[in-house]
Specification:
mainly alpha; 23 helices; disordered N terminus
Amino acid sequence: MSRLAEQKDQQSYTEVSSFQISDGLNHNMEPVKTSRIFLAAVAANLSAFVVGTCLGWTSPIGPKLKSEDTSDSPLDRPITADEDAWISSLIAIGALLAPFVAGPLADRIGRKWVLLSSSVFFVLAFVLNMVASEVWVLYLSRLVQGFGVGFVMTVQPMYVGEIATDNVRGATGSLMQLFIVSGILYVYAIGPFVSYQALQWCCIVVPIISDVVFFFMPESPYYFAGKGRKTDALRSLQFLRGQSAEGVHDEMAVIQANVEEAMATKGTVMDLVKNPSNRKALFICAGLISFQQLSGINVVLFNSQSIFASANTGLNPAIATIIIGCVQVSSSGLTPIVVDRLGRKVLLLVSASVMSLGLAALGFFFYMKLVVGDVSSVIWLPVPALIIYNIVYCTGFGPLPWAVLGEMFPSNIKSTASSVVASTCWILGFVVTRYYPALDALGSYYAFWLFAFFCVVAFFFVLFVVMETKGLSLQQIQDRLQGKRD
């Protein structure tokens, strides 16, 4: 009996001790159940669906707020063009400030709890929308929404990048864009056909459902390992892989070793600049995120209905916007399927080049409308131009910068890097959405041609700067950034 007890104690100790890769023994003969990984990734991405409802909110609500008929507006007067610009852009201010809170919180309380807490901001924002009677309340609501968006966009790529295996990390990382555009389509499809107040109720239930579902998912094993909670890390990995403790033994050993090596020197903002590999990763990630925003996507998302109305194509702007939303969802669904086959770089190159063509065509239409004054020969152009633009955006520059962000940095600097990159995204997002109306006043074609130019620059940035990470482990990516080869 005493020998049996010793064996049981030894087995129990082995599971929670420092994990070591076995010599000559293959512990991982059990197949990985990738369905578990996708289950957790989908649950985490419900928060991205909420982000989509916030990003798409202004498209159906803007015309209600600008209408002379205020019967379906919370305000007693139409908003001005300047107020409209602030309502569109203030979400970016909240989103650029939030990462500097969300990043450190992700290291302190965990990725899961930061994502869960983001719903508090979303619920509060939609409540403010319900009770708003002055424009400043809508400003405050959009700022609060921005905090929620910043929490999600900073921590969600971290979580999804850490729970996935090497062969599905591209697919799970691409899910964010699919869920964002699904949230956008949700408000595009409902907003024009229900009252202002009804839309707020339709939006407020989404973060509540998101939290209920994601609550039952595990925390990232990397977070647990970094906190020394080896038993919790093992259980998390067992759930995510659908394997026994013996089956995940070797992977747990690798995670533990990587985390311990990374945490030996706690990363700071200066390490992002001083360390050559971190600096290279930051340049790649910040560059991709910058070009994502400079492609003009937020202008298209926030103002789709208004763009179609000004184009005067004869198609109901609300219907045209829903068509664009459907295109975004269907094309975003392609990326998780093809990204780990074709690679990140190929999809980004195709995305940048074709986006530039779509934007140039849209600019040409508005040039013909505003300067030439005759669009009879190109009246068909805006809808296909925006459809093409959205297809390639949603398969390339929409999802992949966030997927790359989730895999480029070591554990000791990941939260800091995510904060910096996410804030870069929203600084540019604010600048583009805030000052688009001023550029639009000079002529819409100037804005779309400028966005097209940035897409051309993005093509060459991807071609010469971005490295391919398809099929590489997180450690192999670090080795490549440091100039090491297999």
